[in-house]
Write a structure and sequence with these properties.
Elements: E1 3-6, H1 12-23, E2 27-32, H2 35-44, E3 49-53, H3 59-73, E4 78-81, E5 87-88, H4 96-124, E6 127-132, H5 145-165, E7 170-177, E8 190-191, H6 199-212, H7 222-231, E9 238-241, H8 245-262, H9 264-269
Parallel strand pairs: 1-2, 1-4, 2-3, 4-6, 5-8, 6-7, 7-9
Pfam family, one: adh_short
Protein name: SDR family oxidoreductase
Family: Belongs to the short-chain dehydrogenases/reductases (SDR) family.
């Protein structure tokens, strides 16, 4: 039996993973900003589910939640930093408040929860930290620049973290989902105030998204996949969730290699 702490479990991926773990008999600390949204988990699994209201941007609340998790279950085997959202807008359109809020949740929220759980995992001599990144954590597309920046930051500190904690028996995995049938791009998102000059770009992107909507993944299918990932003795640092992503990133990385190679002479001249 594993004990999980999962942020952002009110709906979407977080809810699917919490239910999958509970259904197989694991213990789950499910958190969300709205406690009412996760109350059904404790009603259905009173002995193995603990529902806590949590805003991951509140560092004191994060520390308190981890203390409650330890008091109830004694350990945390799997942490899933899932709380986050998308911010849509051209880079020029994003307000300072929106940019800071995006990083507060997607980067600092994951950092605070990770820091709070690490002492317990080090004490245990084991643990698996699963950071929910995105295909947008390894590639970038128009109209999502600050969202991408937040996920690239998450990728960076998590790759460092994996090297720092390996000696304690703790592993780190970045899960990078593609497009799924959730409300990530609608009700759960934030949108910048539009500037007219970018209207043609918005219209083109809307058509692209509409054309690709039929190929969206089924969130329920990620439940068994997450359980399998959490059970691995040697989990990967990075893994995609969804079809077509591996080929997409191979093409993107080949373009980067080609570009670096093409200008390598200038790079080396810059060395002096």
């Amino acid at each position: 039996m594993k004990t999980w702490l999962i942020t952002g479990t009110s709906k979407g991926f977080g809810r699917v993973w919490a239910e999958a773990a509970l259904e197989r008999g694991d213990q789950v600390v499910a958190t969300a900003r709205n406690l009412d949204s996760i109350a059904p988990l404790t009603q259905a699994y009173p002995d193995t589910a603990l529902a806590l209201a949590l805003d991951v941007t509140d560092q004191d609340a994060v520390l308190a939640a981890v203390r409650q998790a330890k008091e109830r279950f004694g350990r945390i085997d799997v942490l899933i930093n899932n709380a986050g959202y998308g911010l849509f807008g051209a880079v020029e359109e994003i307000s300072p408040e929106q940019a800071r809020a995006q990083f507060e949740t997607n980067v600092f929220g994951a950092l605070w929860v990770t820091q709070a759980v690490l002492p317990l995992m080090r004490e245990q001599g084991s643990g698996h930290i699963i950071q929910i990144s995105s295909i947008g954590g390894v590639n970038a597309f128009p109209y999502l620049g600050i969202y991408h920046a937040s996920k690239w930051a998450l990728e960076g500190f998590s790759q460092t973290l994996a090297q720092e904690v390996a000696g304690f028996g703790i592993t780190v995995t970045l899960v990078e989902p593609g497009g799924y049938s959730t409300d990530w791009g609608t009700a759960s998102a934030d949108f910048a105030e539009p500037i007219d000059a970018y209207q043609p770009l918005r219209e083109g992107l809307a058509k692209t998204r509409a054309n690709s909507a039929n190929g969206s993944g089924d969130p329920e299918a990620t439940g068994p996949a997450m359980l399998e990932l959490a059970d691995m003795e040697q989990p990967p640092l990075r893994i995609f969730f969804g079809k077509g992503l591996n080929a997409l990133i191979h093409g993107e990385y080949q373009k980067r290699l080609d570009e670096w190679d093409a200008h390598n002479a200038l790079s080396e001249r810059a060395h002096g």
